[in-house]
Amino acid sequence: MERRSSSFPAAVAAILIKDITSEFRNRYAINTLIMFSLVTVTVISISIGQFNISDEMRAAFLWIIIFFSSVSGLGQSFIKEEETGTVLALRLYSNAIAVFASKFIFNTILLLFLELIFIPLFFILLSVECGNLMLLILVIFLGSIGLTGATTLIAAIISKASVKGALFAVLSFPILLPLLIAAIGGTETSLTGGTTMEAIGDLKLLISYPVIMLIASVYLFEYIWIE
Question: What global pTM score does this model have?
């Protein structure tokens, strides 16, 4: 690879293709995400049994699974670069923002793919009914964008740490807490058949959160990546 010879879109596309190819080859992150989410959904459905839980509890369970699945798998985006020794090559090939953008897109694709698999299973096993499907899709999409925006930056921070998994969860939870609260609220509204206007407060936070995180990442990531 030539040193920063590519344009920004070409660099993002090249790194993204490399990550997708690598993931299809070893399937570490996707297997971790799928297995964790499926096992967790099954355990929750067995534990709850025939109890009639509220829509608020169902929404909370859904986002707890999404959060911990993300923590278990999305952190691998930068850890693999450290373990395989390709960090220096990425630094020589592209600028920091292109690296972050490609990792963010890759993690978003990975999380949305996971949600396509386990969310229908979650609805079936827990007998969940959705009163406003479009609102639910919007909340899940916005929440996923915010989640990957934050976890991608955190993954870069902890990639050089010795206790990566535990540190990732510890750093992620307080940063993602406002997002999770809004996502749970918006999901509950969609399950009960509420309108978009009834969830407008949660939607505003779900829209502003990823914007703030991505702007912060643009300013912070280059320093994190070089250091």
Answer: 0.86
